[in-house]
Every structure is written in structure tokens, then in C-alpha cells.
UniProtKB/TrEMBL annotation:
Source taxonomy: Bacteria, Bacillati, Actinomycetota, Actinomycetes, Kitasatosporales
SUPFAM superfamilies given in the database record: Roadblock/LC7 domain (SSF103196)
Protein name according to UniProt: Roadblock/LC7 domain-containing protein
InterPro entries referenced in this protein's UniProt entry, alphabetically: Mycobact_SerProt_Inhib_Rv3364c (IPR053141), Roadblock/LAMTOR2_dom (IPR004942)
SMART domains in the record: Robl_LC7
Domain of life: Bacteria
Domain Roadblock/LAMTOR2: 20-110
Pfam families per UniProt: Robl_LC7
Biological source species: Streptomyces ureilyticus
Signal peptide start and end residues: none
Length: 146
């Protein structure tokens, strides 16, 4: 028996449930957006669109966190200011990572023929719309010593 496509969909609490719904709405409204997630400042998914499994959401969150961290390093080193958005152009997709408050980020994977301006605009609207939900504090449940 095969598990449903969203068997690993993160639905752990009211806040992540609300984020999941908003991310699903973004994917449904913007045809070129394939996947969307919100990640915490420590690189963990806190909200995911319905088409992402737990494994894929954790992988995408880790990648997005890494790109965002590298971009912040460039901003600091070259005194270029804060990171607003990181865009990675792949052969068959774009990866967008947008700061979303208190260290959290919104990551979107879209088709290669996406209107980059539209995707960026929709992401900005979503960040503004749910700013309180996206402002994630760093995890405090880490074990001692690690």
C-alpha cells in the first residue's frame, strides 16, 4: 500500500495549521508555484504546502536556510545590508527565499517559466499578510549540550 502524497504534511499545531492553509492557498492561486514552506531561524519547516512530504520539506528547509545564511554573510561582509530575497535559477525551476521576520523565511519553488516578479510580489503579500505567524522564535527544546 502506498502512503498518501502528503502523509508527512506538517500539521502539528494551530499556528502551523494556519500557515499550511495559507501556503496551500498560495500554491493554488499562483499556477507556476510548485511548493512553498515557512522555515524557522534554525532551518526547520514550520509550515508547508500540501504537496510536500515531511522528508522533502525538511530537505527544502535546510537548503533554503543555507542559501539565506550565505546571502546574509555577503551582506555583512560587504556592508550591503539585510537580505530581502535570494533567487536561485535552476534549469527547470526557480527557488525563492524571502526573509519573513525574526529569522524565519518563506521558501517557494516555482516553474522555470515563472513570472519572477509575480512570484516575488505574491511572496511579499503573504509575508505581510501573516507576519505574526511567520515571526518564529528560535527553538528552545534542544537537549543540553547540543
Amino acid at each position: 500500500m502506498t502512503a498518501p502524497k502528503d502523509a508527512g504534511h506538517i500539521r502539528t499545531n494551530k499556528v502551523s495549521g494556519e500557515l499550511n492553509w495559507l501556503l496551500d492557498d498560495l500554491v493554488d492561486r499562483v499556477a507556476s508555484i510548485r511548493k512553498a514552506l515557512v522555515l524557522s531561524s534554525d532551518g526547520l519547516p514550520t509550515g508547508v504546502s500540501k504537496d510536500l512530504t515531511r522528508e522533502d520539506s525538511e530537505h527544502l528547509a535546510a537548503v533554503a536556510s543555507g542559501f539565506h545564511s550565505l546571502a546574509k554573510g555577503v551582506g555583512r561582509h560587504f556592508e550591503a545590508g539585510s537580505v530581502r530575497q535570494t533567487i536561485v535559477e535552476l534549469d527547470d525551476a526557480f527557488l525563492f527565499v524571502t526573509a519573513a521576520g525574526d529569522g524565519s523565511c518563506l521558501a517557494v519553488l516555482s516553474d522555470a517559466d515563472s513570472d519572477v516578479g509575480q512570484v516575488a510580489y505574491e511572496m511579499t503579500l503573504l509575508v505581510k499578510r501573516v507576519g505574526a505567524h511567520l515571526a518564529q522564535a528560535p527553538r528552545t527544546d534542544l537537549p543540553a549540550g547540543g
